[in-house]
Prior knowledge:
This protein has about 375 residues and is an alpha+beta fold. The protein has helices spanning about 80-85, 100-105, 120-130, 135-140, 145-160, 180-195, 195-205, 225-230, 270-285, 325-330, 355-360; strands spanning about 5-10, 15-20, 35, 50-55, 60-65, 95, 120, 205-210, 215-220, 230-240, 245-255, 255-265, 290, 345, 350. Strands 3, 4, 5, 10, 11, 12 and 13 form a 7-stranded antiparallel beta sheet that branches. β14 (about 345) and β15 (about 350) form a beta hairpin. The longest helix has 14 residues, at about 145-160. The protein starts with 5 loop residues before the first strand and ends in a 12-residue tail after the last helix. Keywords: Carboxypeptidase, Cell shape, Cell wall biogenesis/degradation, Hydrolase, Membrane, Peptidoglycan synthesis, Protease, Signal, Transmembrane, Transmembrane helix. It comes from Actinomadura luzonensis.
Amino acid sequence: MLFAALIASASLTGGTAHAAPATPVGGEALGSRGLVAPQGVRKPPKTKATSYVVADVETGQVLAAKDAHGHYLPASTLKTLTALTLIPKLDKNRRIRPSQNACNQEGTAVGLTPKATYSVDDLFKGLMMSSGNDAAMALAEVNGGLAKTMSEMNAEARRLQAYDTVAKTPSGLDKPGQSSSAYDLALIARAGLANRDFARYISTRTANFPAPKGKTYQISNHNKLLWRYQGMIGVKNGWTSKALGSFVGAATRGGHTIVVSIMRHEGYFWEEVGKLMDWGFSVRGKAAPVGQLVDPLPEGQPAAPQQQASGGPVTQVTPARQPPLLDAAARKQTDHTKTVGSVVIGGGLLVGVVWLVYGIRRRRRGGSGA
């Protein structure tokens, strides 16, 4: 979509307005609500996703897109921004005992309990592997509190020129005013891949996680393509009943890396994402790009009101109408929690065993899945 010249920042209290580019970041073509694909090569495979981006990580070239700048609820894919923001700020060896508030977060959880201690490194694994909303809140508290963390996450989004992204929660749980886009998810993932610890967390398939009394249990990464797709590096999937399915992932083949991001998918998207990645590998270097993943702003440089994204003169454009998927959807979020971590015991996948074995979690209401 073509987005407005002003968007709200995402401080916990509503924040102030930040100037955003008057033309679509990454190129004029990415303002289209429809499919944008190169000529001279086969079309991208079909997907049920409302919005998506396929891009080359090394060059930043966008190979194909659909509604790249459309604003949608990000669900747990927003945890990529949480991780990218907090990894450089927190000592991964620091040990903490989580608050009851963190342990009682709605939705998907890794299984934190005040009866155990965890390293910050453990919390990041719980965040990016098991999509723990409890881990997200614990990390925010370690960072100095929710308000500070949200301010820093939104500042990081502005630095990345991810102007479609407004973070209201560190977990991605639906909240009025929260949004992101397929373009921004690809930007955030690209930046994350350049961080060694971020890349380690997203690519780890299984890990031992602390439990009370010095015991451990094994958690499993929710990204199914780590087991199914050749060269998959990983990144993050998400789901709520209002956001529907979202995903951003990257894979490397032949020394080249492709990133695919999708938003608002109504069903099982893993095979479709794999096909989009296959297409990306097959056309990279063979067709003119339809846009560009822009580089982050230099440290200390504020976002310009009319930041040129792709060369040439900046022109004023008319904002496209947004689909009513954000505030109203978040207000109606009433689903019950269905997932509490993913635990592997004896090679088998067992969901929710944290509750059954340790009895450390009470059933909570929430909407965030993977």
